[in-house]
Amino acid sequence: MRQEIVIRSMLRRVGVPANLLMVGLVGGMFCLFQMASRNPGGRPADLVLPFVLPFVLLFGHLALAPVPWQWTGNDEDRTGLGRGFVQALLFDLAWIGMALASLHLLGHPGPPPFPRLPGPPMPPMPPPFRPGFGLGLVNLAFGIAFGWVCAAKEATEAGERRMAGLLRHAQARALQAQLEPHVLYNALNGLAELVHEDPLAAEEMIAGLADLYRMLTVHGGEALILLEQERRLVEAYLAMEQMRLGERLRVAWRWPDWADGLRLPPFCLLPMVENAVKHGISPDAAGGEVVIACARIGKGVRLSVDNTGRALQGQGRGVGLANLEARLALWTELAGGFTLAARGAWTVAAVQWVEAP
Predict the structure, then answer these.
(1) Structure pTM?
(2) Where are the alpha helices (DSSP H) in the chain?
(3) Which residues pair with 294 in a beta bridge?
(4) Contacts of 337 (CB under 8 A, 6+ apart)
(5) DSSP 83
(6) What is the CATH superfamily name and number for domain 167-354?
(7) Which of 73, 116, 263, 311 shows a CA-CA span of 20 to 30 A to 324?
(8) Phi and psi dihedrals of 154, rounded to 5?
(9) pLDDT digit string (tens) for 271-313?
């Protein structure tokens, strides 16, 4: 791993409540053992340091012990056994030695502030608390072993996350590939209707269809795209449908400028627009209005397509909307959800998600 990844891994370990709870429980057991084995009395430092030491060392092992095994300087998740052992030996020796030396100095008795006055002899004081050499060797061995086990566990988890990410990416690409011909099939069906009614408009629609196919090919090749690109794709699709439906299709945009800068998986807006035109506006002899909107709601963003065409029949999902739901389920970076509902005379389709902090 590289430096920035190692640091993120360390922060992730110390930020897990279960890990901190384990440090507290094990450190507490050592404290109970100290209370049972040490004589009462002594300087304040002698009473405090034995109970601080377990927590300091355990937290240090949690945060630092895996670091030398993960420090590879490249994209590998951990080092080989030989290099890792040498790095762990030197690294753990350094931080454990500094920790014990610091506590040793804190526990070392200084000279008395005032000379002792003549009088009866003072009762013997218990020896000051001084971390020993044996304690350092035990922690060194534990740090090397624990670091190797922890680094191996995190390397396995990182590999599983990568495999899961690759699988999600492959599934998303397959779904996007399914959606591209679906959009073209619907556009060709509209073109077939227009050929007999208005040949000149059909010729113009063929040119628009070529542009739409080019945009679909570029659009579907990305994992995330700017919403501005999707808006332009929708505008090209609606321009073709406008040729076919004429005044029966009325479109209104409620689109703030900041919406173009949002990054989403491809084909989040187009399936909702296509569904509104195909199932709402086109079957209705009077046509209707399609309202395309983007708005912030609290910490979330809502992308919606409303239409006043034929009323929603049931809650079934066509190819486009089922595809959209499946791709949103694979969008693990942000939690997104899709809804389709009737609200009075309107049919409302919406995608809503919470923005990343």
Answers:
(1) 0.54
(2) 3-14, 17-37, 44-64, 67-70, 81-107, 133-197, 199-219, 227-245, 270-275, 319-329
(3) 303
(4) 328, 351, 352, 353
(5) H
(6) Histidine kinase-like ATPase, C-terminal domain (3.30.565.10)
(7) 311
(8) -70, -30
(9) 899 888 888 888 888 889 999 999 998 888 999 999 998 877 6
